[in-house]
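Figure 3 (text version): structure tokens given as input.
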């Protein structure tokens, strides 16, 4: 499976959109500072993810979500989560590491 995911920084509340074939590993990398793109903004909570069979579909979705229209969709789709800061641990991901 391939995943498109959205993280929210607990430090600055900003969002990060990424794509991976191993969501648990990538989440741990972001929170442990192994990703230069997100190291200064860690720690993170996973607030959304989508699973794809096709890597191409996942990459295209990630690209779309990073456009202006994509950001608008994210803010509509996650309105309550973002407004009320409803940051809860993601199912199946142990965030204690």
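Below: residues designed for each position.
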């Amino acid at each position: 499976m391939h995943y498109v995911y959205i993280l929210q920084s607990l430090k600055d509340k900003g969002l990060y959109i990424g794509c991976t074939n191993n969501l648990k590993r990538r989440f741990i990398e972001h929170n442990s500072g192994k990703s230069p793109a997100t190291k200064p903004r860690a720690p993170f909570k996973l607030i959304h993810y989508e699973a794809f069979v096709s890597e191409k579909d996942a990459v295209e979705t990630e690209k779309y979500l990073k456009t202006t229209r994509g950001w608008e969709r994210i803010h509509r789709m996650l309105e309550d989560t973002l407004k009320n800061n409803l940051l809860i641990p993601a199912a199946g991901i142990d965030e204690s590491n």
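The chain is about 35% helix and 25% strand.
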